[in-house]
Amino acid sequence: MAPTSSTLAAPLQPDIEYHPNEEKWRVRTARRLAEDPLLPTTPLPRGFPQKLESPLVWKGSDWMDESQWVYELNESQLKEIDDAVKYFNALNQPLGYVSPTTFPLPTLSPILSELSKELHTGRGFFVLRTIPVSSYSKKDAILIYTGLSSHVGSLRGVQDHNNAIISHIKDLRNSHPEKTIGSPAYTTDKQVYHTDIGDIIALFAFETAHEGGTSRISSSWQVYNDLAASRPDLIQTLAEPWPLDGLGGTPAYSMRPLLFYEDSKIIIQYVRRLFTGFHGISRSTNIPPITEAQAEALDAIHFYAEKVALGLNFQKGDIQFINNLSIFHGRDAFVDTPEKTRHLLRLWLRNEELAWKIPTELQPTWDRVFYKTSLVEQQFPVEPEMLLMKGAKYA
């Protein structure tokens, strides 16, 4: 008797976790290639380039000294920033109204504008060094961060359902139950290579860790080139729809590709935990599992990115800006002490004059994040809190 749909076993989630296991990846790769030796001859998706040529294609070894990406603020510019703090505070307006106009930087603004061009058409990253954090209140330090960032990307994205604009990246396990922590951002764990939401990601170092916590970035355009040359079948897999976990939201999951080719630009948008779960929040069981091909592709992204990554030496007061559409980011695990507790602030930004065209499948997310909240509704929490975000709506 032929098997029926009721007698066929349902597909199972592959043996894969948030933290990539290189041995499992190599075993899975060897098994899949043994089953189908022609996988490396798979054509790229229609229209996708064989190789990207751009300053956005780079390896960590290409950068020999941090002076190549660090812009150090001088005393005159720090005075200009301090004057802008006083100017904005005198306006007596909510922080949502911070803009290049309300946070004026006469000589620094043109420099930040040029650095924003570097994000979009150059190497895709830079570090602004260094804000004297300890000289300001937390509120004014956030004002400085928001004000400087407005000259790089004036649109700020909301990061949760309560219209929080600022996210605190800090170990919160002492203040929140383990079962509620579903992101490595709120632990001391290593973060694997991933992207956030938005065109530009800004990270402000309120404080660095006692040990570890190195910020690492990797050109997703370089990773694309390496995959296209060696495993074009995984490019095909990444360009097909994937089931993104809604993490308890509605809908329970959404379907979209992780890789896009839009307006002659490659864009990879993904967070690994939506396919594997993390820590206290496991992957939902009532949604489709990923495939073995997708499991291999997830690990390939991480290990290919790791091979060509660059470590950035975060110092207290630094602001790191990256092009989220062309760069993966991650971090090393770290150790805190009462005297040195790693604490970063995060902004999602968009510069409408320089912005890339966003793929149709991502546009609803960009609309929710950047265009649905009024300036007066924007919230800037001063103290660390865990953001309330459901994966299917913000993925």
TrEMBL record:
The keyword Oxidoreductase appears for this protein: yes
Record domain TauD/TfdA-like: where: 98-348
SUPFAM superfamilies xrefs: Clavaminate synthase-like (SSF51197)
Keywords assigned: Oxidoreductase
A Pfam family matched in the record: TauD
Annotated InterPro entries: AlphaKG_dependent_hydroxylases (IPR050411), TauD-like_sf (IPR042098), TauD/TfdA-like (IPR003819)
Alphabetized GO MF terms: oxidoreductase activity
Keyword Disulfide bond: no
PANTHER family named among the record's database cross-references: FAMILY OXIDOREDUCTASE, PUTATIVE (AFU_ORTHOLOGUE AFUA_4G13850)-RELATED, GAMMA-BUTYROBETAINE HYDROXYLASE-RELATED
Name assigned to this protein: TauD/TfdA-like domain-containing protein
Origin species: Crucibulum laeve
Lineage, top ranks: Eukaryota, Fungi, Dikarya, Basidiomycota, Agaricomycotina
